[in-house]
Amino acid sequence: MTRRPLIIGNASGFYGDRAAALREMLTGGPLDVLTGDYLAELTMLILGRDRLKNPGLGYAKTFPRQLEECLGLAHERGVRIVTNAGGLNPAGLADAVRALAAKLGIPASVAHVEGDDLMPYEDGALTANAYLGGAGITACLRAGADIVVTGRVTDAALVSGPAAWWFDWAPDDWDRLAGAVVAGHVLECGTQATGGNYSFFTRHDVRAPGFPLAEVCEDGSSVVTKHPGTGGVVSVGTVTAQLLYETQGVRYLGPDVTARLDTVRLLSVGADRVGISGVRGEAPPGTLKVGVTRIGGWRNEVVFVLTGLDIEAKEELVRAQLADALRDVAEVDWTLARTDHEDAATQETSSALLRLVVRDPSPDPVGRSLTAAAIELALASYPGFHVTAAPGPAQPYGVFTSAEVPAASVPHTAVLPNGTRLPVPPALAVPPALAAPQPSPAPPAPPAPTAPPGPTGPTRRGPLGALVGARSGDKGGDANVGVWVESDAAWAWLHATLTVDAFQALLPETAGLPVARHVLPHLRALNFTVPGLLGDGVASGHRFDPQAKALGEWLRARHTDIPVALLPAPEATP
């Protein structure tokens, strides 16, 4: 007998997301399961520092506050809650939830998943956590848990784990699991699937986008949507953008299954409803990713404001005046952002920003002595000297790296509501043919365009974003940029035109890096991975945009020659 679809929503895309979302999702319409994703690479560093101060912490402290006003709602509506807010201390958060339920007089069966914490890992590591799959969540739900708290699981596991419970899938139901993983990847970042951070945002009212949900079917297909009456939009474009977010290659590796992103098909099936189908799955690798954070050193920053004339000369003067103070600093980065405009109508728009970022293994060279040297220039440097904020003491910065360990070496454990500790075996062994890393297949040819632009047709120079959408993000020190178009004709042009060389020419900061291009024809999309662009990752604060969130928008703003036939027709002038 076929079971009805699982209705599963998301109420958090990161630690610090909209606090009211839990209530909004519980009151906005029917749900079977509500998830919350709180963990990111930077979050693990934050939680690691919390744990150093108090071993009883290490979890997302906002979650119990959100749950206090919503636990009764979830109980009344029969909605299960699954969250990775447990962070580094899922047992501690589970205990806090039990105490909260007892205080409120609400019966709640609480379970948690642990085993991801591999500390002590190596000298200098602050945190080390394996990325677990959804099987522990499945086991907890099968045991009757109303609330499941996890540590570091893959973001998509928050959906694939409940789906496997709901439909009683076998561990080797690769295609079904892969479909649920893709749905989970769409939901994991909350409102990024409903119009947030969307290239074509001006087409829609996205002032207050609602959070997404998915109706997952027994065959692994799904429909992404949102509660009626909530803001934002769910379209093939918003779902495509999220599918491309922080992915690398056509094989999306996971602890439970490898999802083939080059098999995903999207179809609009109604207002704010996008169907996901066709997802193929393969056996997972025999290893688990381990995210490791450590304190990398100390950093500081000063931003000088340069106003009016002679911007370059003012920059040169300040750099020369601070040369002696910076002589013994391990890493020094100067960046001049030309935000100034000629003959500007306001002082702010007449100003450029000169940013100095310093890093060192010791706090002393980048501490008060350095910032004092900068401020001492206030009456002795360029005309109009001032800074954006008072310089402060050196701050520690983090470094994120990843490694792999055998899946069988990680003690994945489901701690059931009655306290039983149930070991969760790793996914089925990888067949020998897949034991070694497999190269991605040769990119398939793009589908035949319905309106070929023609290589000799007229072109117009303009921003790539007039035709192309993009979304970008980070994985440690690597960045990815996914780009897509909306017609077959535009896809034929994009596939032929935006090569790795063209990409690097448009984004000169990627020159010299081993950029790779991955082709996703069913999405009319290309995904570029840029290893090493972000240095030591977001926690090190090396770049102006340390998580590469706007890298795709920079690409869209770059100018190139675009066939006129592909560009939107100009609006008629009255």
TrEMBL record:
<dbReference type="Pfam" id="PF07287">
    <property type="entry name" value="AtuA"/>
</dbReference>
<feature type="compositionally biased region" description="Pro residues">
    <location>
        <begin position="438"/>
        <end position="456"/>
    </location>
</feature>
<feature type="domain" description="AtuA-like ferredoxin-fold">
    <location>
        <begin position="464"/>
        <end position="557"/>
    </location>
</feature>
<dbReference type="InterPro" id="IPR056362">
    <property type="entry name" value="AtuA-like_ferredoxin_dom"/>
</dbReference>
<feature type="compositionally biased region" description="Low complexity">
    <location>
        <begin position="457"/>
        <end position="466"/>
    </location>
</feature>
<feature type="region of interest" description="Disordered">
    <location>
        <begin position="429"/>
        <end position="473"/>
    </location>
</feature>
<protein>
    <submittedName>
        <fullName>DUF1446 domain-containing protein</fullName>
    </submittedName>
</protein>
<feature type="domain" description="Acyclic terpene utilisation N-terminal">
    <location>
        <begin position="7"/>
        <end position="415"/>
    </location>
</feature>
<dbReference type="Pfam" id="PF23544">
    <property type="entry name" value="AtuA_ferredoxin"/>
</dbReference>
<dbReference type="InterPro" id="IPR010839">
    <property type="entry name" value="AtuA_N"/>
</dbReference>
